[in-house]
Amino acid sequence: MRRKIEILAPAGDMICLQAALDAGADAVYLGLGGFDMRRIVAGNFTAASLADAAARCRARGAKLYLALNTIVFEDELAAVREQLAAAKPHVDAVIAADWAVCGACRELGIPFHVSTQMSCSNSQAAAFLKAQGASRIVLARECTLDEVARIAAAADVEIEVFVHGATCVAESGRCLLSHEAYGHSASRGDCRQPCRRRYRVHEVREGDGSDAEFEVESHAVFSARDLCSLPFLDRLAATGAASFKIEGRARNADYVRTVVGAYREGVDAVADGRFTPELAEALVARVSRVYHREFGAGLYHGRPGAEQFATLEENQATHIKRHAGIVLHYYPKAKVAQVLVQDSPIRTGDELSIQGPTTGVVAFEAGPLRREEVVVAVAERGNWVTLACPSPVRVNDKVFRVERVRASQ
Questions:
Q1: 250-265, pLDDT tens digit by residue?
Q2: Taking CA atoms, which of 139, 199, 208, 210 is between 20 and 30 Å from 406?
């Protein structure tokens, strides 16, 4: 019997973590802000909130992994060990990219996963890393489907692969461009993403001195497409990889909920023999609703990959959300929420998303709006209304109105 494939979800804050669990994630990975590759994420977890995160995961039977995956300098070794010791009771494994972190995990008895930034791209490297104590290898993103399958079959260690999200232009994400351009190192979790910016070419013409400068088209010459594995999820599942990792700790809760939910449905359909091209198309349309660049297949189909770089503006989401207001009260017996409209008006039939640290994400279509006993057509800014809400929400949860802005890819 084939082992169940783990769906590993990103969490940049507690709302995202709750959204990931509600959407069916088997595991969640997060950072504590000090030594992880997304340390500039505003909602990063702290040592104080880690216990709560772990409790939520364990209540759902999900695992929790700590990303401690930057390079580490000499004067930081004590701080790294202190963070690991504090995290040990709460995490199931640490994702590491520095040998000092691996060594500390071994000494402290914490399972560790080797990050993709170690560029493990063959079975002998995977076997060596296992011999050093690694319980899982996150393969280099440069591996093809065939190579993933061969490594998974030969290495005798759990293999994890990325299935969705932003892709770095550099090999296994080890980019020096941000440090060179801005003094903020990507390898220290501080990337300023210069690869996503516009560029001009300066042509030096010898002889007449009439140099030329022009903007490159498409402007995103370094901007790799976002990975989307849904069209070939069945082939990826057949490789024997143990874990499917979704990138996105800098993304919001709508992104996490939508993408995790789509991969949950897709992986379950593969396991049950129900996965079809039609389902894959529907799932791609679903994840197209939230923030993404143009989708691509990464390097799974060969190196160099076809159509690796974006040609359009960054965000190709088919839907956006606009802040509407906050929850004033929730009546559990009636399943009714009272909402104060602070910004975007709400109308019957609007798609709403209510989000909060305990709530996660509750999405539904607005039914009749009432103020006292009167049904109103629209709730304008400064007014409150009540409306049916299918799941519990909390006071001060944020209310968003979701609207379509473009057709799916």
A1: 899 999 999 999 999 9
A2: 199
pLDDT for 1:
36
DSSP per position, 162-182: EEEE---SSGGG---HHHHHH
* Residues in a beta bridge with 138: 160
Ranges of H-type helices in 273-333? 277-287
Task: Please give the Cα distance from 22 to 5 (Å, whole number).
Answer: 18
**CATH numbers and ranges of domains, the chain:** 6-169+224-296 (3.20.20.70), 319-404 (2.40.30.10)
| Mean pLDDT score, 291-311 | 82
Amino acid at 34: G
Query: Using CA atoms, how far apart are residues 380 and 167, in angstroms rounded to an integer?
Result: 41
- CB-based burial of residue 396 (10 Å sphere; 0-12 exposed, 13-18 middle, 19+ buried)? exposed
Q: Which two tokens stand for residue 356?
A: 């909060």
Q: How is residue 163 written in tokens?
A: 């299935």
Angle between helices 253-272 and 277-287 (to 10 degrees): 170
Token output for 151 = 């490594």
Question: What are the DSSP E strand ranges found in 249-397?
Answer: 295-296, 319-331, 336-341, 346-347, 351-356, 360-365, 369-371, 374-376, 378-379, 384-388
Residue 341: CA count within 13 A, CB half-sphere: 20
Tell me if 242 sits within 8 A of 331, measured CB to CB.
no
- Dihedral sign (CA 128, 133, 139, 145): positive
Q: Collapse the DSSP code of 93 into the 3-class scheme (helix H, G, I; strand E, B; otherwise coil) and give the result.
A: strand
97-107 tens-digit pLDDT = 999 999 999 99
Full DSSP string of 32-64: -SSSSTTTT-TT---HHHHHHHHHHHHHTT-EE
Instruction: Give the C-alpha separation, 27 to 36, whole Å.
Output: 18
